[in-house]
Design goal:
Number of domains: 2
Number of strands: 0
Shape: elongated
Helix content: over 70%
Mean pLDDT: 74
Distance between the termini: 48 Å
Bound molecules: zinc ion
Strand content: under 5%
Low-confidence stretches: none
Order of helices and strands: HHHHHHHHH
Number of helices: 9
């Protein structure tokens, strides 16, 4: 038997799945191979420790020490903290919501200024093969949009204050998150091991 085979049998011994025949073969190899015999005595010690349940209750501070060593390892992937992410997402949502409100309630003025803007008209003209198509589509789209928007606004204008209240709530929630985010920062740096 070679050492690799002996090692495999030792693993089976540790698992408690070593057959009697294999145990005899392993014993033969261990009698002639000092290196494997040394490995075996180490494995056997581990098996004995486990069977005595001495490792079930780890020594005091063992888990903490292990966790600190794990934390000390360089981070493989820098993960943004949840608070940062939440703050950014919430900020983006409330800003977009606010911009959306402003655009929606001022869309007539915006469309007018776009139509009156020669740069915008020239940009449309810069697409000769499709410009007619684009113009038609834009006309269709703007017709559809304003038709929808008119009916939506008729419905929404009575909810204008509700929307503003939602915006205020979004902003307030963002402030709460920002505050918690700030107050979490110093506490966290204290709790980190200084090693
Ligand atoms: Zn060997």
């Amino acid at each position: 038997m070679n050492c690799a085979k002996a090692d495999e049998l030792m693993m089976r011994y540790m698992d408690g799945t070593l057959s009697e025949d294999d145990a005899v073969l392993l014993k033969k190899h261990l009698d002639t191979c000092a290196a494997c015999a040394e490995d075996f005595s180490l494995y056997d010690e581990i098996v004995t420790h486990f069977s005595e349940d001495t490792l079930v209750s780890a020594p005091e501070g063992f888990e903490k020490a292990v966790m600190e060593r794990i934390r000390a390892l360089p981070a493989l992937v820098a993960r943004p903290e949840l608070d940062t992410l939440l703050y950014l997402v919430w900020g983006a949502v409330s800003v977009l919501f606010g911009i959306g409100l402003i655009v929606f309630f001022n869309r007539d003025a915006i469309i007018e200024s776009l139509a009156a803007n020669p740069a915008f008209a020239r940009y449309i003209d810069l697409l000769p093969p499709v410009s007619d198509y684009v113009t038609t589509v834009l006309a269709d789209v703007s017709q559809t949009v304003s038709a929808v928007a008119d009916s939506v606004q008729a419905y929404i204008s009575s909810f204008r204050y509700l929307l503003l209240i939602i915006f205020v709530i979004l902003a307030a929630a963002q402030m709460v998150i920002a505050r918690r985010f700030k107050s979490d920062k110093p506490a966290e740096s204290h709790s980190r091991p200084m090693s």
